[in-house]
Predict the structure of Glutamate dehydrogenase.
Amino acid sequence: MDYINRVLSEVAKKNSCEEEFIQAVREVLKALSPIVEKHPEYEDYGLLERIVEPERQIVFRVPWVDDAGKVRVNRGFRIQFNSAIGPYKGGLRFHPTVNLGIVKFLGFEQMFKNALTGLPIGGGKGGADFDPKGKSDNEIMRFCQSFMAELYRHIGINIDVPAGDIGVGAREIGYLFGQYKRITKSYDAGILTGKGLGYWGSFVRKEATGYGLVYFMHEMLKAHDLDFTGKKVIISGSGNVAIYAHEKVTQLGGTVIAMSDSGGYIHDAEGVNLDTVKQLKEVERKRLHEYTQHHTNAQYHEGSQNIWSLACDIALPCATQNEITLTEAQNLVRNGVVALGEGANMPCTDEAIDYLVDNKVFMGPAKAANAGGVATSALEMSQNSMRLSWSFEEVDARLKAIMVNIFREAKEAAEEYGSPGNYVIGSNIAGFKKVADAMLAQGIV
C-alpha cells in the first residue's frame, strides 16, 4: 500500500549505504499490509516512520594495544533501537564485517524477536569491527576492556543489557563484565547476559539458540503432521547455534549430514559426529577440515556456500546473513527440502524467502525461530534480579514453552490476516503488533 511504499522509499533514501538494514526493513514492512490496512491509526501517528528509526545510535573509537606493543584502533557500535516493551536487549558482535548498517539491521530484527518472546525487553544490538580470530587471550582482554570503557556510559540493568553474538562468547563476556564492575564499582550481575555459571550466568544459555530453533521447527513440523524422525538435516555453521541445533535434532531422531565453517563444509552421510565437532570447535578451536582426520568416510569441500547443493529434508542455516540466495533456494527445492529454519539472523535473501514460500517450503523465520538465545538471556536477567539460579531442566522447560508460544502466535497471526501456513508473514505481524501497540499506548516518544 501507499503508506508502506512511502516509508520504504524514505528508508532507502536516508540509509542508502546500508543494504542489510534496508533489506531487513523491506522484509518486515512488505508483510504488514494486512495489519496496516486494518489500523489506519498507525499512519495517523507516524508509527512506521518511528519504528524504522533507532531511538539512539552510538559510534565510538576503541583503541587497544597488541602483544607487540602496537596501538590498534577499531570502531565500536551500540544501536538502541526500541524500548517500548522494556530495556534495550541484544548481543554484541565482534567481526571484521561489522559496520553501522549491519548493526542497525540486527537491532531492527531484534526489536521484533524480543517482542515475540513475551518477555519485557526492547531491541538493541552492538559490536565492533574487531576480529578475535588469531588474537591472544591478552589482546582480546585489552580490546574488551577498552570497548567497555566507553560502552559502560550507555548501558544499565534498566536501560540496556548487552549479550554475546558472533565473536563474543563466555570469554569475551567475562572480560567485559570484569571491566564494567571495575569502572562502576558495582556488582550489577544483570548488566550482561551470557556470563559464566560461576558468576550468575544461566544454565542453557550456550545451548539456547540452537535448542530454541529446533523446538520452533518441531512445532511447525507437527502442525503439518511431520517430525524430525528419519529426516536428513543440513546445518550451516559450527558455532554454538549450529552445534546445539545438531544436538537437539539428533535427540529428536534426525540425522545431520553436513556442517560448515568459513573455510568449507563437511559431508558425512552416516551423520556428522557431534562429539568430534565439539572437540574441534569448543576445545581445540580448530578448523572443520580436520574432521576428516577422525572420520575417513566423511568428505571436506572448500567453500561453505556449496553446502546447500546437497540433498536434505530440512535446512537450518546457522552461519551468517544472506548465505542462502535465490540460487541456493532453487537447489534446496530441486533436492526436495521440506522445511527451513533460520538459525542465523537473516540468512536468506528476500528472493530466496519468496521462492521457498512459493514452493510450499515451511519457513521458520529468524525473528521467531532463533529467539531462544535472547529468551534465555531474559531468563538470566530474571534470575539475576531475584538472586536465584534455576536448574538446567527448569530453564530448558521455560525455553521450550516460550518457543512453542512463539510458533502459536505466528500461526494465529498468519491465519487471522489471510496467509495461513505462512510463518514469515505471521511472525512479522505478531512481533510488529506487540511493539506497535506498546508505542501507541505511550504516545509520541
Q: What stands out?
A: DSSP finds 18 helices and twelve strands in the chain. The first strand starts at residue 56 and ends at 65.
